From TrEMBL:
Zinc finger CGNR domain span: 131-174
Pfam families: ABATE, zf-CGNR
Superkingdom in the source lineage: Bacteria
Entry-linked InterPro entries: ABATE (IPR010852), ABATE_dom_sf (IPR023286), Znf_CGNR (IPR021005)
Protein name (record): Zinc finger CGNR domain-containing protein
Length: 178
């Protein structure tokens, strides 16, 4: 997927799919890959689904908004998440490793909702979810994976948003009369 921005801090494994989904909203450029069926179709994993209809797009955008809020970009809404989960049917499925996993019970756009929620659930269980964060630079709001040992990263990239934030703070300090 190409969102028009390099992702300096990509999430590992399947969590990268959720990160890509969350970054279909590009705050800095004001673009939304889920804004219309054609651009949503370009993003959809595998592109083997029909373009989503209005209801599917609404649900995908609502899930994105809700998951972004759980990464620090807004206030989570548990009721909304529960309603979205009602449209994401899951089943237990054997995995080649011998374990039992959650899997989408349907194909199509409901299956995408189920897949994204399953990956999120797995990331919460294995402890990687809290490392998925929203960049603190208000003009960016990119979702990045915090690879730092201390888990305290606040910007998607120090060389981009960290620098912008620090330069702006410096300029404010210099323009303030002493």
């Amino acid at each position: 997927m190409n969102t028009g921005r390099t992702a300096p801090a990509a999430a590992p494994g399947r969590l990268g799919t959720v990160q890509d989904f969350l970054n279909t909203l590009h705050v800095e450029r004001g673009t939304d890959l889920l804004g219309a069926p054609a651009t949503a179709y370009d993003w959809l994993p595998g592109n083997d689904l029909p373009p989503p209809g209005p209801r599917a797009l609404d649900r995908l955008r609502a899930l994105r908004r809700e998951l972004r809020s759980r990464c620090g970009d807004g206030t989570p809404d548990d009721d909304l998440l529960a309603r979205l989960a009602d449209h994401a049917p899951l089943r237990f499925a054997p995995h080649p490793t011998g374990t039992i996993r959650l899997a989408p019970a349907e194909d199509g756009h409901r299956g995408i909702l189920a897949t994204l929620l399953t990956i999120t659930y797995e990331a919460q269980r294995d402890g990687t979810w809290p490392r998925l964060k929203t960049c603190h630079h208000n003009g960016c709001r990119w979702v990045f994976y915090d690879h730092s040992r201390s888990r305290t990263a606040t910007w998607c990239a120090m060389g981009i948003c960290g620098n912008r934030t620090k330069v702006a703070a410096y300029r404010r300090r210099q323009s303030t009369p002493r």
